[in-house]
Amino acid sequence: MAETHPAAVESLLAKITTREARVGIIGMGYVGLPLALTFIEKGFRVLGFDVDPEKVTALGAGQSYIKHLDPARVAAAAKTGRFEATADFSRLDEPDAILICVPTPLTAQREPDMSYVIGSSHKIKDRLRKGQLVVLESTTYPGTTDELVKGILEQSGLRMGEDFYLAFSPEREDPGNRDHSTATIPKVVGGVDRGSLALAQALYSQAIARTVAVSSARAAEAAKLTENIFRAVNIALVNELKVVYDTMGIDIWEVLDAAATKPFGFMRFDPGPGWGGHCIPLDPFYLAWKAREFGRSTKFIEIAGEVNVEMPHYVVNKLQLALNERGKALKGTKVLLLGVAYKKDIDDPRESPAFEIIELLRRLGAVLSYHDPHVPKLPRMRSWPHLPELASLPLNEDTLKSHDAVLIVTNHSAVDYDAVLNHAAFIVDTRGVYRSAHPKVIKA
Ligand SMILES: NC(=O)c1ccc[n+]([C@@H]2O[C@H](COP(=O)([O-])OP(=O)(O)OC[C@H]3O[C@@H](n4cnc5c(N)ncnc54)[C@H](O)[C@@H]3O)[C@@H](O)[C@H]2O)c1
Q: Does the beta carbon of 176 sit less than 6 angstroms from any atom of ligand 1?
Protein backbone atom coordinates (compact mmCIF):
# COMPACT_ATOMS: atom_id res chain seq x y z
CA MET A 1 0.00 0.00 0.00
CA ALA A 2 1.35 3.44 -0.87
CA GLU A 3 2.58 5.47 2.08
CA THR A 4 0.31 8.38 3.03
CA HIS A 5 1.67 11.81 3.86
CA PRO A 6 0.31 15.12 5.12
CA ALA A 7 -1.61 17.13 2.52
CA ALA A 8 1.26 19.57 1.89
CA VAL A 9 3.63 16.71 1.07
CA GLU A 10 1.04 15.04 -1.16
CA SER A 11 0.50 18.28 -3.03
CA LEU A 12 4.23 18.73 -3.77
CA LEU A 13 4.48 15.02 -4.67
CA ALA A 14 1.75 15.53 -7.24
CA LYS A 15 3.58 18.50 -8.74
CA ILE A 16 6.76 16.46 -8.93
CA THR A 17 5.23 13.41 -10.55
CA THR A 18 3.49 15.51 -13.18
CA ARG A 19 6.80 17.40 -13.68
CA GLU A 20 5.08 20.71 -13.06
CA ALA A 21 7.41 21.34 -10.12
CA ARG A 22 10.07 23.90 -10.89
CA VAL A 23 13.62 22.89 -9.96
CA GLY A 24 16.16 25.45 -8.70
CA ILE A 25 19.84 24.55 -8.65
CA ILE A 26 22.42 26.63 -6.76
CA GLY A 27 25.90 26.31 -8.31
CA MET A 28 26.10 25.77 -12.08
CA GLY A 29 29.49 24.00 -12.01
CA TYR A 30 30.70 20.52 -12.88
CA VAL A 31 27.86 19.02 -10.83
CA GLY A 32 25.04 21.55 -11.05
CA LEU A 33 25.04 22.08 -14.81
CA PRO A 34 24.78 18.40 -15.87
CA LEU A 35 22.09 17.98 -13.20
CA ALA A 36 20.16 20.94 -14.61
CA LEU A 37 20.36 19.49 -18.13
CA THR A 38 19.16 16.11 -16.88
CA PHE A 39 16.03 17.63 -15.32
CA ILE A 40 15.35 19.78 -18.38
CA GLU A 41 15.69 16.80 -20.69
CA LYS A 42 13.01 15.05 -18.60
CA GLY A 43 10.60 17.95 -19.08
CA PHE A 44 11.17 19.99 -15.91
CA ARG A 45 11.61 23.76 -15.78
CA VAL A 46 14.95 24.64 -14.19
CA LEU A 47 16.19 27.88 -12.68
CA GLY A 48 19.98 27.80 -12.24
CA PHE A 49 21.58 30.13 -9.69
CA ASP A 50 25.25 31.10 -9.76
CA VAL A 51 27.34 33.93 -8.33
CA ASP A 52 29.51 33.94 -11.47
CA PRO A 53 27.91 36.38 -13.96
CA GLU A 54 29.95 34.91 -16.84
CA LYS A 55 28.36 31.50 -16.32
CA VAL A 56 24.90 33.06 -16.16
CA THR A 57 25.52 34.93 -19.42
CA ALA A 58 26.95 31.84 -21.15
CA LEU A 59 23.96 29.72 -20.14
CA GLY A 60 21.58 32.47 -21.27
CA ALA A 61 23.25 32.25 -24.69
CA GLY A 62 23.01 28.44 -24.68
CA GLN A 63 26.77 27.99 -24.35
CA SER A 64 28.66 25.40 -22.34
CA TYR A 65 31.83 26.25 -20.39
CA ILE A 66 32.57 22.67 -19.39
CA LYS A 67 34.62 20.99 -22.05
CA HIS A 68 33.49 17.38 -21.58
CA LEU A 69 29.82 18.41 -21.62
CA ASP A 70 28.28 18.20 -25.08
CA PRO A 71 27.62 21.85 -26.09
CA ALA A 72 24.60 20.67 -28.09
CA ARG A 73 22.92 19.64 -24.82
CA VAL A 74 23.29 23.15 -23.38
CA ALA A 75 22.11 24.75 -26.61
CA ALA A 76 19.12 22.39 -26.76
CA ALA A 77 18.26 23.09 -23.11
CA ALA A 78 18.27 26.85 -23.81
CA LYS A 79 15.95 26.33 -26.80
CA THR A 80 13.31 24.51 -24.73
CA GLY A 81 12.48 27.78 -22.97
CA ARG A 82 12.45 25.78 -19.73
CA PHE A 83 15.99 26.72 -18.65
CA GLU A 84 16.95 30.02 -17.13
CA ALA A 85 20.12 31.00 -15.26
CA THR A 86 20.32 33.90 -12.87
CA ALA A 87 22.54 35.60 -10.29
CA ASP A 88 19.48 37.05 -8.60
CA PHE A 89 19.06 35.01 -5.43
CA SER A 90 15.88 36.86 -4.45
CA ARG A 91 14.24 34.50 -6.96
CA LEU A 92 14.89 31.52 -4.66
CA ASP A 93 11.21 31.53 -3.72
CA GLU A 94 10.27 30.56 -7.31
CA PRO A 95 11.40 26.91 -7.44
CA ASP A 96 9.49 24.14 -5.67
CA ALA A 97 12.68 22.18 -5.09
CA ILE A 98 16.12 23.72 -4.50
CA LEU A 99 19.22 21.58 -5.01
CA ILE A 100 22.49 22.93 -3.55
CA CYS A 101 25.59 22.08 -5.63
CA VAL A 102 28.18 24.56 -4.33
CA PRO A 103 31.85 23.82 -3.57
CA THR A 104 32.94 22.18 -0.31
CA PRO A 105 36.71 22.73 -0.27
CA LEU A 106 39.16 22.62 2.65
CA THR A 107 40.53 25.68 4.43
CA ALA A 108 44.27 26.40 4.52
CA GLN A 109 44.28 24.40 7.79
CA ARG A 110 42.74 21.44 5.93
CA GLU A 111 39.42 21.70 7.72
CA PRO A 112 35.99 21.73 6.02
CA ASP A 113 35.28 25.10 4.42
CA MET A 114 31.53 25.32 4.86
CA SER A 115 31.28 28.96 3.79
CA TYR A 116 29.59 28.16 0.44
CA VAL A 117 27.00 25.83 2.01
CA ILE A 118 26.36 28.30 4.82
CA GLY A 119 26.10 31.22 2.38
CA SER A 120 23.65 29.33 0.15
CA SER A 121 21.57 28.21 3.14
CA HIS A 122 21.22 31.83 4.28
CA LYS A 123 20.16 32.92 0.81
CA ILE A 124 17.52 30.18 0.75
CA LYS A 125 16.39 31.08 4.29
CA ASP A 126 15.83 34.70 3.21
CA ARG A 127 13.32 33.60 0.56
CA LEU A 128 12.09 30.28 1.99
CA ARG A 129 8.37 29.70 1.57
CA LYS A 130 5.99 26.97 2.67
CA GLY A 131 6.02 23.81 0.60
CA GLN A 132 9.61 24.00 -0.69
CA LEU A 133 11.96 21.03 -0.76
CA VAL A 134 15.67 21.73 -0.20
CA VAL A 135 18.29 19.08 -1.03
CA LEU A 136 22.00 19.44 -0.33
CA GLU A 137 24.15 17.65 -2.91
CA SER A 138 27.61 18.99 -2.00
CA THR A 139 29.90 16.38 -0.46
CA THR A 140 30.15 16.97 3.28
CA TYR A 141 30.48 15.50 6.79
CA PRO A 142 27.59 13.61 8.41
CA GLY A 143 25.34 16.03 10.24
CA THR A 144 25.66 18.95 7.84
CA THR A 145 22.10 18.71 6.56
CA ASP A 146 20.20 18.00 9.76
CA GLU A 147 22.31 20.28 12.00
CA LEU A 148 23.88 23.10 10.02
CA VAL A 149 21.51 23.58 7.05
CA LYS A 150 18.34 22.83 9.00
CA GLY A 151 19.41 25.27 11.74
CA ILE A 152 19.92 28.09 9.26
CA LEU A 153 16.70 27.42 7.31
CA GLU A 154 14.63 27.34 10.50
CA GLN A 155 15.87 30.85 11.35
CA SER A 156 13.20 31.83 8.80
CA GLY A 157 10.58 30.88 11.36
CA LEU A 158 9.40 28.00 9.18
CA ARG A 159 9.64 24.43 10.51
CA MET A 160 11.35 21.52 8.75
CA GLY A 161 8.91 18.68 8.17
CA GLU A 162 5.88 20.95 8.57
CA ASP A 163 6.53 23.99 6.38
CA PHE A 164 9.49 22.89 4.26
CA TYR A 165 11.38 19.66 3.57
CA LEU A 166 15.06 18.83 3.68
CA ALA A 167 17.23 15.99 2.38
CA PHE A 168 20.76 15.09 1.36
CA SER A 169 21.56 13.35 -1.90
CA PRO A 170 25.22 13.06 -2.84
CA GLU A 171 26.47 13.75 -6.31
CA ARG A 172 28.40 10.94 -8.01
CA GLU A 173 29.21 12.77 -11.21
CA ASP A 174 32.35 11.38 -12.87
CA PRO A 175 33.52 13.99 -15.37
CA GLY A 176 34.63 12.52 -18.68
CA ASN A 177 33.19 9.06 -17.97
CA ARG A 178 31.56 7.86 -21.19
CA ASP A 179 29.80 4.86 -19.63
CA HIS A 180 27.90 6.69 -16.91
CA SER A 181 26.05 10.00 -16.81
CA THR A 182 23.97 11.90 -14.27
CA ALA A 183 20.80 10.17 -15.48
CA THR A 184 22.18 6.63 -15.21
CA ILE A 185 24.17 6.76 -11.96
CA PRO A 186 22.00 5.51 -9.05
CA LYS A 187 21.26 8.33 -6.61
CA VAL A 188 21.44 7.80 -2.85
CA VAL A 189 18.82 9.83 -0.99
CA GLY A 190 18.45 10.47 2.74
CA GLY A 191 15.70 12.66 4.16
CA VAL A 192 15.80 14.54 7.44
CA ASP A 193 12.28 13.13 7.93
CA ARG A 194 9.95 10.69 6.14
CA GLY A 195 8.13 13.31 4.10
CA SER A 196 11.39 14.87 2.93
CA LEU A 197 12.70 11.47 1.85
CA ALA A 198 9.53 10.73 -0.09
CA LEU A 199 9.73 14.08 -1.87
CA ALA A 200 13.43 13.92 -2.69
CA GLN A 201 13.12 10.35 -3.89
CA ALA A 202 10.12 11.22 -6.04
CA LEU A 203 12.00 14.14 -7.58
CA TYR A 204 15.15 12.23 -8.48
CA SER A 205 13.14 9.21 -9.71
CA GLN A 206 11.69 11.45 -12.43
CA ALA A 207 15.11 12.15 -13.88
CA ILE A 208 17.48 9.43 -12.72
CA ALA A 209 17.30 5.72 -13.46
CA ARG A 210 17.44 4.49 -9.86
CA THR A 211 17.26 6.04 -6.42
CA VAL A 212 18.56 4.33 -3.29
CA ALA A 213 16.80 5.43 -0.11
CA VAL A 214 18.67 5.38 3.20
CA SER A 215 17.24 6.02 6.65
CA SER A 216 18.73 9.49 7.24
CA ALA A 217 20.56 12.41 5.68
CA ARG A 218 23.58 11.41 7.79
CA ALA A 219 23.70 7.93 6.28
CA ALA A 220 23.61 9.47 2.80
CA GLU A 221 26.40 11.91 3.73
CA ALA A 222 28.46 9.04 5.12
CA ALA A 223 27.82 6.88 2.01
CA LYS A 224 29.37 9.52 -0.22
CA LEU A 225 32.40 9.97 2.03
CA THR A 226 32.84 6.19 2.24
CA GLU A 227 32.99 5.91 -1.56
CA ASN A 228 35.72 8.53 -1.81
CA ILE A 229 37.68 7.34 1.24
CA PHE A 230 37.69 3.88 -0.36
CA ARG A 231 39.27 5.38 -3.47
CA ALA A 232 41.75 7.53 -1.55
CA VAL A 233 42.96 4.57 0.53
CA ASN A 234 43.24 2.21 -2.44
CA ILE A 235 45.11 4.79 -4.51
CA ALA A 236 47.55 5.16 -1.60
CA LEU A 237 47.89 1.38 -1.35
CA VAL A 238 48.91 0.92 -5.00
CA ASN A 239 51.19 3.94 -4.79
CA GLU A 240 52.95 2.41 -1.81
CA LEU A 241 53.19 -0.97 -3.54
CA LYS A 242 54.60 0.76 -6.63
CA VAL A 243 57.49 2.16 -4.58
CA VAL A 244 58.13 -1.14 -2.78
CA TYR A 245 58.05 -3.24 -5.97
CA ASP A 246 60.19 -0.76 -7.85
CA THR A 247 62.90 -1.13 -5.20
CA MET A 248 62.67 -4.92 -5.74
CA GLY A 249 62.94 -4.51 -9.50
CA ILE A 250 59.32 -5.55 -10.04
CA ASP A 251 57.01 -3.58 -12.37
CA ILE A 252 53.76 -2.59 -10.60
CA TRP A 253 51.89 -2.43 -13.92
CA GLU A 254 52.76 -6.00 -14.79
CA VAL A 255 51.71 -7.04 -11.29
CA LEU A 256 48.37 -5.23 -11.56
CA ASP A 257 47.64 -6.64 -15.03
CA ALA A 258 48.17 -10.11 -13.56
CA ALA A 259 46.28 -9.51 -10.28
CA ALA A 260 43.33 -8.00 -12.15
CA THR A 261 42.66 -11.33 -13.91
CA LYS A 262 41.25 -12.66 -10.62
CA PRO A 263 37.51 -12.69 -11.27
CA PHE A 264 36.55 -11.96 -7.65
CA GLY A 265 37.88 -10.28 -4.54
CA PHE A 266 40.22 -7.85 -6.30
CA MET A 267 39.46 -4.37 -7.56
CA ARG A 268 42.05 -2.64 -9.65
CA PHE A 269 43.38 0.81 -8.80
CA ASP A 270 46.25 2.32 -10.75
CA PRO A 271 49.19 4.15 -9.24
CA GLY A 272 50.13 7.63 -10.37
CA PRO A 273 51.94 10.85 -9.48
CA GLY A 274 49.72 11.52 -6.44
CA TRP A 275 46.02 12.25 -6.11
CA GLY A 276 43.97 15.02 -7.63
CA GLY A 277 40.60 16.57 -8.33
CA HIS A 278 38.01 18.33 -6.26
CA CYS A 279 37.03 15.15 -4.37
CA ILE A 280 39.54 12.44 -3.51
CA PRO A 281 42.25 14.59 -1.85
CA LEU A 282 39.66 16.63 0.09
CA ASP A 283 36.55 14.65 1.01
CA PRO A 284 38.22 12.13 3.38
CA PHE A 285 39.28 15.02 5.62
CA TYR A 286 35.64 16.01 6.11
CA LEU A 287 35.19 12.74 7.97
CA ALA A 288 38.54 13.00 9.77
CA TRP A 289 37.48 16.42 11.07
CA LYS A 290 34.04 15.29 12.23
CA ALA A 291 35.44 12.10 13.79
CA ARG A 292 37.63 14.19 16.10
CA GLU A 293 34.46 15.67 17.61
CA PHE A 294 33.55 12.10 18.61
CA GLY A 295 37.01 11.34 19.99
CA ARG A 296 37.75 8.97 17.09
CA SER A 297 40.80 8.94 14.87
CA THR A 298 40.79 8.03 11.18
CA LYS A 299 44.15 6.34 10.70
CA PHE A 300 43.55 5.00 7.19
CA ILE A 301 42.65 8.48 5.97
CA GLU A 302 45.76 10.03 7.50
CA ILE A 303 48.05 7.33 6.11
CA ALA A 304 46.45 7.57 2.65
CA GLY A 305 47.11 11.30 2.80
CA GLU A 306 50.75 10.84 3.76
CA VAL A 307 51.44 8.27 1.03
CA ASN A 308 49.66 10.16 -1.75
CA VAL A 309 51.16 13.53 -0.83
CA GLU A 310 54.60 11.97 -0.97
CA MET A 311 54.17 10.82 -4.59
CA PRO A 312 55.14 14.06 -6.38
CA HIS A 313 58.41 14.00 -4.38
CA TYR A 314 58.99 10.39 -5.42
CA VAL A 315 58.40 11.27 -9.08
CA VAL A 316 60.74 14.27 -8.99
CA ASN A 317 63.37 12.14 -7.27
CA LYS A 318 63.06 9.55 -10.06
CA LEU A 319 63.60 12.28 -12.63
CA GLN A 320 66.64 13.55 -10.73
CA LEU A 321 68.13 10.04 -10.56
CA ALA A 322 67.55 9.53 -14.29
CA LEU A 323 69.30 12.82 -15.06
CA ASN A 324 72.11 11.87 -12.75
CA GLU A 325 72.61 8.65 -14.73
CA ARG A 326 73.02 10.86 -17.79
CA GLY A 327 75.51 13.12 -16.03
CA LYS A 328 73.04 15.98 -15.67
CA ALA A 329 71.59 18.04 -12.86
CA LEU A 330 68.00 19.20 -12.66
CA LYS A 331 69.09 22.83 -12.44
CA GLY A 332 68.81 24.37 -15.90
CA THR A 333 67.35 21.18 -17.39
CA LYS A 334 64.38 21.64 -19.75
CA VAL A 335 61.50 19.45 -18.63
CA LEU A 336 58.28 19.00 -20.61
CA LEU A 337 55.30 17.88 -18.52
CA LEU A 338 52.74 15.88 -20.45
CA GLY A 339 49.25 16.41 -19.03
CA VAL A 340 48.36 18.76 -16.17
CA ALA A 341 44.65 17.91 -15.70
CA TYR A 342 44.12 15.76 -12.59
CA LYS A 343 43.02 12.80 -14.67
CA LYS A 344 42.84 11.46 -18.19
CA ASP A 345 40.75 13.16 -20.90
CA ILE A 346 39.29 16.00 -18.85
CA ASP A 347 40.09 19.72 -18.71
CA ASP A 348 39.95 20.08 -14.92
CA PRO A 349 43.32 20.85 -13.27
CA ARG A 350 41.94 21.34 -9.73
CA GLU A 351 44.19 19.80 -7.07
CA SER A 352 46.23 18.13 -9.80
CA PRO A 353 49.54 16.65 -8.60
CA ALA A 354 51.03 18.50 -11.61
CA PHE A 355 51.11 21.67 -9.51
CA GLU A 356 53.18 20.16 -6.71
CA ILE A 357 55.51 18.59 -9.30
CA ILE A 358 55.92 21.93 -11.09
CA GLU A 359 56.60 23.68 -7.78
CA LEU A 360 59.21 21.10 -6.74
CA LEU A 361 60.94 21.26 -10.13
CA ARG A 362 60.82 25.05 -10.14
CA ARG A 363 62.50 25.19 -6.74
CA LEU A 364 65.22 22.87 -8.01
CA GLY A 365 65.91 25.17 -10.94
CA ALA A 366 64.38 23.15 -13.80
CA VAL A 367 63.13 25.05 -16.86
CA LEU A 368 59.51 24.05 -17.27
CA SER A 369 57.02 23.74 -20.11
CA TYR A 370 53.97 21.59 -20.57
CA HIS A 371 51.61 20.15 -23.12
CA ASP A 372 48.00 19.37 -22.29
CA PRO A 373 45.47 19.13 -25.14
CA HIS A 374 42.68 20.09 -22.71
CA VAL A 375 44.32 22.83 -20.61
CA PRO A 376 45.57 25.61 -22.93
CA LYS A 377 46.84 27.81 -20.08
CA LEU A 378 48.00 26.93 -16.59
CA PRO A 379 45.36 28.58 -14.37
CA ARG A 380 46.31 30.65 -11.33
CA MET A 381 45.83 28.60 -8.18
CA ARG A 382 45.41 30.01 -4.70
CA SER A 383 47.65 27.34 -3.15
CA TRP A 384 50.42 27.79 -5.76
CA PRO A 385 51.19 31.51 -5.88
CA HIS A 386 54.66 31.07 -7.40
CA LEU A 387 53.74 28.99 -10.43
CA PRO A 388 55.26 30.23 -13.67
CA GLU A 389 52.81 31.59 -16.27
CA LEU A 390 52.71 28.77 -18.78
CA ALA A 391 50.71 27.98 -21.89
CA SER A 392 50.47 24.52 -23.44
CA LEU A 393 53.13 24.02 -26.13
CA PRO A 394 52.18 22.21 -29.32
CA LEU A 395 53.33 18.61 -29.14
CA ASN A 396 55.58 17.99 -32.12
CA GLU A 397 59.05 16.78 -32.98
CA ASP A 398 60.62 20.21 -32.37
CA THR A 399 59.05 20.57 -28.94
CA LEU A 400 60.05 17.06 -27.90
CA LYS A 401 63.61 17.39 -29.19
CA SER A 402 64.12 20.76 -27.55
CA HIS A 403 63.58 19.33 -24.06
CA ASP A 404 65.97 17.27 -21.95
CA ALA A 405 63.23 15.13 -20.44
CA VAL A 406 59.50 14.40 -20.72
CA LEU A 407 57.48 13.74 -17.57
CA ILE A 408 54.07 12.12 -18.10
CA VAL A 409 51.76 13.37 -15.35
CA THR A 410 48.40 12.68 -17.04
CA ASN A 411 47.89 10.08 -19.76
CA HIS A 412 45.39 11.84 -22.05
CA SER A 413 44.24 9.65 -24.96
CA ALA A 414 44.75 12.43 -27.52
CA VAL A 415 48.56 12.26 -27.20
CA ASP A 416 50.63 10.29 -29.72
CA TYR A 417 52.85 8.34 -27.30
CA ASP A 418 54.79 6.60 -30.08
CA ALA A 419 55.90 9.99 -31.37
CA VAL A 420 56.84 10.99 -27.82
CA LEU A 421 58.96 7.86 -27.50
CA ASN A 422 60.62 8.50 -30.87
CA HIS A 423 61.61 12.09 -30.26
CA ALA A 424 62.02 12.56 -26.49
CA ALA A 425 65.48 12.24 -24.93
CA PHE A 426 63.93 10.13 -22.17
CA ILE A 427 60.56 9.83 -20.46
CA VAL A 428 59.53 9.55 -16.84
CA ASP A 429 56.21 7.71 -16.99
CA THR A 430 53.98 7.95 -13.90
CA ARG A 431 50.93 6.38 -15.55
CA GLY A 432 52.13 3.13 -17.05
CA VAL A 433 51.69 4.42 -20.61
CA TYR A 434 54.63 2.31 -21.79
CA ARG A 435 54.17 -1.23 -20.59
CA SER A 436 57.26 -2.94 -22.01
CA ALA A 437 60.73 -2.04 -20.82
CA HIS A 438 62.51 0.53 -22.98
CA PRO A 439 65.89 2.21 -22.37
CA LYS A 440 64.28 5.65 -22.77
CA VAL A 441 61.45 5.00 -20.28
CA ILE A 442 61.74 5.35 -16.51
CA LYS A 443 58.61 4.23 -14.65
CA ALA A 444 57.84 6.36 -11.63
N1 LIG B 1 33.20 17.74 -9.79
C2 LIG B 1 32.90 16.50 -9.48
O3 LIG B 1 33.24 15.59 -10.19
C4 LIG B 1 32.11 16.17 -8.22
C5 LIG B 1 31.66 14.87 -8.06
C6 LIG B 1 30.91 14.55 -6.95
C7 LIG B 1 30.65 15.52 -5.99
N8 LIG B 1 31.12 16.78 -6.16
C9 LIG B 1 30.77 17.75 -5.12
O10 LIG B 1 29.80 18.64 -5.66
C11 LIG B 1 29.97 19.94 -5.11
C12 LIG B 1 30.13 20.95 -6.23
O13 LIG B 1 31.31 20.65 -6.95
P14 LIG B 1 31.59 21.13 -8.42
O15 LIG B 1 32.70 20.29 -8.94
O16 LIG B 1 30.33 21.21 -9.20
O17 LIG B 1 32.14 22.61 -8.14
P18 LIG B 1 32.32 23.78 -9.22
O19 LIG B 1 33.34 24.69 -8.63
O20 LIG B 1 32.51 23.21 -10.58
O21 LIG B 1 30.91 24.48 -9.22
C22 LIG B 1 30.43 25.24 -8.17
C23 LIG B 1 29.63 26.38 -8.75
O24 LIG B 1 29.05 27.08 -7.68
C25 LIG B 1 29.19 28.46 -7.93
N26 LIG B 1 29.12 29.11 -6.64
C27 LIG B 1 30.09 29.31 -5.73
N28 LIG B 1 29.59 29.91 -4.65
C29 LIG B 1 28.28 30.07 -4.87
C30 LIG B 1 27.23 30.61 -4.11
N31 LIG B 1 27.43 31.10 -2.89
N32 LIG B 1 26.00 30.62 -4.65
C33 LIG B 1 25.80 30.11 -5.89
N34 LIG B 1 26.75 29.58 -6.65
C35 LIG B 1 27.98 29.55 -6.14
C36 LIG B 1 30.50 28.61 -8.66
O37 LIG B 1 30.54 29.81 -9.42
C38 LIG B 1 30.47 27.37 -9.55
O39 LIG B 1 29.83 27.62 -10.78
C40 LIG B 1 31.16 19.83 -4.16
O41 LIG B 1 30.71 19.56 -2.88
C42 LIG B 1 31.91 18.64 -4.69
O43 LIG B 1 32.68 18.02 -3.69
C44 LIG B 1 31.84 17.13 -7.26
A: no
